[in-house]
Design a protein that fits this description.
By secondary structure, this protein is α+β, with helices and mostly antiparallel strands. It is 16% helix and 57% strand. The protein has an 8-stranded antiparallel beta barrel with strand order 1-2-3-4-5-6-7-8.
Length: 120
């Protein structure tokens, strides 16, 4: 009886399994965004994961930004570094099916930018 109950519970679990949870947010994305001064930008984003922490690497033009993020529900919160000026910033992405919709700000900034990352 215990084996039958266990099998039934496992079938329910497998039946409700979301394949996105298995792959997580890891992968490559194209990004496009608007800076606080309204200029546009485009680039690439790669997301990897170490345990519960996501590692992000953006390449925009000739500049590479790196950051670390934590997922809570459908939000990925990230702190990142700004090279050449020893600066930092934060971005909050809302997680959608195949994209991340973000609002970001540089540390000390007074206006936010926006970014959309679409999985390749």
């Amino acid at each position: 009886m215990k084996k039958v109950l266990f099998a039934a519970i496992m079938l329910c679990f497998i039946g409700n399994f979301d394949s996105r949870a298995a792959t997580g947010l890891e992968g490559k994305y194209t990004v496009s965004g608007t800076n606080p001064n309204e200029t546009k930008y485009a680039g690439l984003l790669e997301i990897t994961r170490k345990n519960t922490v996501y590692q992000l690497r953006w390449v925009v033009g000739k500049t590479t930004y790196t950051g670390s993020g934590l997922q809570t529900g459908n939000v990925l919160s990230v702190a990142y570094t700004i090279p050449k000026v020893a600066g930092c910033g934060v971005v909050a992405y809302t997680i959608a099916d195949s994209s991340l919709n973000g609002t970001w700000a540089a540390c000390g900034g007074g206006t936010a930018g926006t970014e959309i990352a679409v999985r390749k």
